[in-house]
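Weekly modeling sync, notes
Attendees: S.R. (lead), two postdocs, one rotation student

Agenda item 3: backlog of single-chain predictions. S.R. asked that every request posted to the team notebook include the full sequence so nobody has to chase files. The rotation student volunteered to paste the first one in as an example of the format we agreed on. Action items at the bottom.

Example entry:
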Amino acid sequence: MIKKAVIPAAGFGTRFLPVTKAIPKEMLPVVDKPLIQYGIEEIISSGMDQILIITSRNKSSIEDYFDKNPELEKVLEEKDKRDLLEEVKKVSDLAKIVYIRQKEMMGLGHAVLLAKDFVNNEPFAVLLPDDIIDSEIPCLKQLVEVYSEYSCSVVALERVDEEGTWRYGIIKPRQISDRVFKIEDVIEKPGPERAYSDLAVIGRYVFEPDIFSELERTKPDSRGEIQLTDAFGLLSKKRPVYGLLFEGRRYDVGNKFGFIEANIRLALKRKEFEAKIKEILSSLKY
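Predicted structure, as returned to the notebook:
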């Protein structure tokens, strides 16, 4: 069973400046909770209970959010605000979370490599909090099911348009079943002319621990960053790596439009907000 998950959360969040100058992007609220909480809840719903969050300077608010706050809890209890008290306690009791800092911004691959001691030679999951995935079966759980069948590393896939080939790693696939593909090769942000397919790697992964050997061998790119895509591309040359075309709706909350869309669509799924939001949307003049 896979019990450990890693969340890289050390980036600067430059696409959301200037607000991310003071607030970690991962703490921006989507409806009524920070976007990183969606990822942690997905991890827990997928059967994992040990989480490592990779942070950096000026991100202590992430640790504070998931820590206990006895002073606040005491105030809420004294004021008999039981519902709020339960919500506050629920956040701090979600999972066993530990933290490590990425002292230099050397890419996603470098961030994952920092998790080597935490993983301790076990299979593990990686979740990028920039992606919120709304699905009946949690996306990571879908990956775990494929891993259980093939006992090999597996990554989440999504079909993209031509613009998407400039933004994501694109795989060279060999189809195994309706939604499962063996990855023959992968290329990072190739553009439509060099893309192998329309299947892009998105921010959910389940890895065997041998990914660390490939990360240690991966050379930094022109920006001095170690790319996770390059590492599992190397891994795919030595042993099978699979991709799963997951079921669900993905919101790329790492960009402003995706963030706005996620807030609207996820709020519409909440009974207390649905009618009012529909009323606002229907009143808009275009």
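Discussion: group reviewed the output briefly. The radius of gyration is 20 Å.
Action items: rotation student to repeat for the remaining queue; S.R. to check formatting next week.
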